Description:
By secondary structure, the protein is α+β, with helices and mostly antiparallel strands. It has helices spanning 12-27, 72-92; strands at 31-37, 45-51, 58-64. The protein has one domain (12-92): Double Stranded RNA Binding Domain. The protein contains two helices and three strands, in the order αβββα. A three-stranded antiparallel sheet has the order 1-2-3, with helices on one face. Helix 1 runs parallel beside helix 2 (72-92).
Amino acid sequence: MKKMVEVEYVGVKDLSDIMCAAKSVMELGHYVSVSFSNYERTKPLVSVIIRRKDIAEEYDFCFYESSDWNDEYSIQQMNECKSILYNILAQED
């Protein structure tokens, strides 16, 4: 019997999902800023700012794109960011 182990990390697919969701959220009139930087020339730093149009609420996320599954903070930030974007989209339906 084979066992599967799921490893979570911040990868290109995650960044693509965030970019697609961010575009959809912007089309609904919300403010979203996504930026990538390479300050230390190691792993790309991803910064996402989300401002909702209907309430004065702002979300600010920073995390590293990384295949390092031990980077729990970046994984947590990425998951929270995706969750906020998806929640906004679900509320608008």
